[in-house]
Amino acid sequence: MSDQEDKIAKAAADVLNKRFRSIRESARFYNVPRATVGYRIGGRKAKSKTERNSQRFTNEEEKSVVQWVSDL
């Protein structure tokens, strides 16, 4: 996990554990985006943690497209 993601996770945890009274206060303390902290509290995952089901191409299809573009 990146340093930024660590700070976002800590900011969200501190709001949930009542260390800070608001998302804004926690986000300001950790110097992270307020909306992102709110999204994490709401259950949204970081892009790096999302599932690969959102891929448009399979690995074979991607290799085929790369080869096709290289041949142009």
TrEMBL record:
Residue intervals of the HTH psq-type domain: 5-41
Q: Which SUPFAM superfamilies match?
A: Homeodomain-like
Q: Which InterPro entries match?
A: Homeodomain-like_sf, HTH_Psq
One Pfam family name is: HTH_psq
One GO molecular-function entry? DNA binding
Q: Which domain of life is it from?
A: Eukaryota
Protein name stated in the entry: HTH psq-type domain-containing protein
